[in-house]
Amino acid sequence: FWAAQMLAAWRFGKVLDADDPPRTRAWNGMILVALGLLLSLGLALEDSSSGICNGRQGWEKTMPCQLDFAADYPRVFKPMLIFCLLGAADAIYQNYAYWLMSMAAGPDVRKTVMYSAVYKGVQS
What we know:
Helices cover about 75% and strands about 0% of the residues.
């Protein structure tokens, strides 16, 4: 999960820091955020409705799923992949949000800090 977040943030940062005009970088970023969210959440919802846990009833907090990597190897690949994709999508979304705030603030560091503080206060 964390490795997927770090890798996604690094690669996505390269997209946002490209030499293209800001509007192009914003559109590219928005497209990647939307694709990441659709892919990760779509796979998670599909796996929850037809997954391998709890007699195909899906992932439920009250009925934990007991998967063992060694014993259930072929079947655990998809949930592990989805977990990594959710981490990557989270990192891409957060990176894009902070980039938008920094672009809105321009060269004013004080505004950037205030935007970030409000964002983290509301997000948490």
